[in-house]
Each structure stands twice: as C-alpha cells, then as structure tokens.
Amino acid sequence: MANNVMVTANKVYHRHKIGKITTVTLTLLLLFLIIVYVLLSIVYSTGNFTVSLDSEETLKSGISIYESLNDPKGKNKLYAKSLTFMDNISGKWIPENIDSESDGAHNGDNYIAYTFYVENQGDETLNYWYKVVVDDVIKNVDKAARIMIIQNGNKVVYAKTNELSGEAEEGTIPFTTYDDGTIIIQERQNFAPGDLDKYTVVIWIEGDDPDCVDALIGGEIKMHMDITEEHIE
User: Fold this and answer.
1) Do 22 and 114 reside in the same domain of the chain?
2) Burial, 198: exposed, middle or buried (Cβ in 10 Å; 0-12, 13-18, 19+)?
3) pLDDT digits (tens, 9 = 90+) for 186-212
4) Do 128 and 174 belong together in one domain?
5) Helices then strands, each counted (H, E), the chain
6) Are 3 and 95 contained in the same domain?
7) Measured between alpha carbons, how far apart are the two ends of the chain, in Å?
C-alpha cells in the first residue's frame, strides 16, 4: 500500500513538473511573439518608404527637403503613404506622366509613387549623396521589387540581380550590397545655392521578373532614403 502511494505521489510530482515546464515554455514563446510583433509594428508604423536628412549638420548646411513647391519649408523627414496590399504588375503599366502628375504621395494600383524636392537654401556650393536603405524584408519580396528614381526628369530603374543567372534584370541597374542594407547610392555634385532637384520614387513588384513566384505572396518590404551633404573644399 505504501509503495502504491509513493508511485502515485511520484507520478503527480512529475506531472506537476512537466506542467510547470510547459507553462514556462508557452509563456516564453508568447513573450517572444509579442516582442517580434512590437518590433515589426515599430518598423512598419511609418509606412513603407520615407525620406530623411541624415543629420542636423546636413540641415544646417542649407539642404532642404519638402514635398510641395507650394510649401517649401524644409523638413527633417518626409513620409510616403503606404499600401495595405500590393499585387505584382508590369512596369509598363506605370503612367508615363508619373513624374509630373502630382507632388507628394500619388500612389496608384499596386505601386507606391512619391515626389519630393531637394533645394540648396544655403550660401555654399556643395555635393550631396542620396542612398536607399532596406530596413526590413519579409519572404524575400525584394527579389522581384523595382525602384524607379526619376531625378530632374532622368529615369533609372533599380532591381536585384536575377537569382539564377546573377545578371541584371532587363532595363535595370543592379542593387548594390552593403552591410547596412544600402541598395542604391548616388552622388549629386556641384549643388549651388538656389539649385532645386526634383525626385519621383516609384516602387512596385515586377510581375515579369523570373523571381516573382508564389513564394513571395504575403511578403513585405520597408525602405528609406537618406540625404547627406558633402562640402566642396
């Protein structure tokens, strides 16, 4: 009888121990999921694309960014409107007048379009750099992403190289690969006082890209553009 009581007590003890381990494990897993959710919420809370002056020094140098000629007051950061859903399309569907149809956000069906201005409101000629940085990618959707940058009417389309061939996709310039997530970096030289540069950035998922496959469904991408100055000595 005593042995039976001891065996039963051991079973209860082990069952209780397993229950505690399971509870702790589930609690830790829930906490991990909450942390991931919060981090993703922070990452995506400002939309899919932003433009920023990278430091106060850039602002002090006289470089100014704004999204409307009717309100040329410089800002530290500009926000493009995000899309809740983006299906793949052909770049041929992007309107020919995308660069002139509107200032600020002018998204279309399944593409993000944002127009803004960079002006030298200072009294020195300088150079500046702009770079596009990927902050986060879900489900490798960047494989089929396209980024069109139109600077003062000059259009360039950027894309990741083809995964199989390693070659540039047709009609595109390959993304760069930097540790900080930079995929595009360009210099604007001899930016004199009073000079004004107009930019239109268009982002879409290219349906004609060989890497645009069903595995990308449900993916997301967030990126930003930094403007940083470099004085001419």
Assistant:
1) no
2) middle
3) 999 999 999 999 999 999 999 888 888
4) yes
5) 2, 12
6) no
7) 95
Q: Residue 91 corresponds to which amino acid? A: G
Same domain (yes/no): 131, 196: yes
What pLDDT shows up at residue 220?
Answer: 81
Count, residues in the chain: 233
Task: Tell whether 119 and 217 lie within a shared domain.
Answer: yes
- The closest alpha carbon to 225, from 125, 128, 106, belongs to 128
φ, ψ of residue 77 to 5 degrees: the values are -150, 140
Residues 6+ away with beta carbon under 8 Å from 31: none
What is the number of domains present in the chain? 2
* Per-residue pLDDT tens over the stretch 118-130: 999 999 999 999 9
- Average the pLDDT over 34-38 and give the result: 37
Residues 85 and 157 in one domain: yes
Per the prediction, the chain carries an average pLDDT of 82
Q: Are residues 208 and 185 in the same domain?
A: yes
Rounded to the nearest 5 degrees, what angle is found at the Cα of 101, between the Cα atoms of 168 and 157?
Answer: 5
> What value does the mean pLDDT take over residues 10-22?
61
The answer to whether the Cα torsion of 195, 184, 81, 58 is positive or negative is: negative
Domain, as residue range, for 221: 46-231
